[in-house]
Specification:
The protein is an alpha/beta fold. The chain has a domain of 159 residues: 3-Layer(aba) Sandwich (Rossmann fold). It has a six-stranded mixed β-sheet, sandwiched between helices. It has a two-stranded antiparallel sheet with strand order 2-3.
């Protein structure tokens, strides 16, 4: 019999409303497992998971599905769009499951796509969109049911640097508007957009500090900027935003 693998160990973590948290660590450190447990995609084998004082780890599958639908938005590295649906139809999908009427969900989907700069791509299918545009459709879809918490697993992993910056600019703006965000990433340039940095190793949280105080992260970002010939990431992202979303 195979021995069970412990993906997370002794994790004691609190995330507050309106925080922007980056989770970093080597492959196999437990980053994605942590994100999946937070998003109710997996159950912890031990311990408690409280959301607004309610222990979610003991809920039945149907209750977990309802809370997942109503409280969480997910963004994945591979976009996970339906290839046969247009951008606006992809954004409508979560609202269909939530029972939103056809006219209301169409209007909300259009508004969300406009929010991420894709009002001119409403009726394009994923194959007709760039990678950055597909990820912005995924962001709009994640916002469809008004989530409490946005969870992003390597959201820029499949994108060129410039498009990745535009995605992080969009997430930063959502956080500035009050959205709580947790993003898993290997990229220090992505983590630099956050306010708080968690570092995992061998399933344990070995670091928890403000991004601005993380000397290791700042050194990694500075090295990345030198390699790419870029200025500060924040300044570049602002310049890109002023030019508009270029897919």
């Amino acid at each position: 019999m195979k021995e069970p693998v412990t993906a997370l160990r002794d994790v004691d973590l609190q995330v507050w409303r309106r925080q922007f948290v980056a989770v970093m660590g080597p492959s196999g450190s437990g980053k994605s497992t942590l994100l999946h447990i937070i998003g109710l995609l997996d159950r912890p084998s031990a311990g408690e998971y409280l959301l607004e004082g309610v222990d979610l780890s003991t809920l039945k599958d149907g209750e977990m599905a309802r809370i997942r639908r109503d409280h969480f938005g997910f963004i994945f590295q591979s976009y996970n769009l339906f290839p046969e649906l247009t951008a606006v139809e992809n954004v409508e999908v979560p609202m269909i499951y939530a029972g939103v009427g056809a006219r209301e969900r169409r209007e909300r989907a259009k508004e969300l796509l406009a929010q991420v700069g894709l009002e001119h791509r409403l009726f394009h299918r994923p194959a007709e969109l760039s990678g950055g545009e597909q990820q912005r459709v995924a962001i709009a879809r994640a916002l469809a049911n008004g989530p409490t918490l946005l969870l992003a697993d390597e959201p820029t992993g499949n994108l060129p640097t410039e498009q990745g910056r535009l995605i992080m600019q969009a997430l930063r703006e959502l956080n500035d508007q009050g959205m709580t965000i947790i993003v898993v990433t290997h990229d220090p340039g992505v983590a630099a957009w956050a306010d708080r940095l968690l570092t995992l190793r061998d399933g344990r949280v070995v670091g928890d500090e403000p991004v601005a105080e993380s000397q290791a992260l700042q050194a990694s970002v500075a090295a990345l900027q030198r390699d790419l010939g870029h200025g500060p990431l924040g300044e570049e992202a602002e310049d890109d935003a002023e030019r508009g979303y270029a897919g």
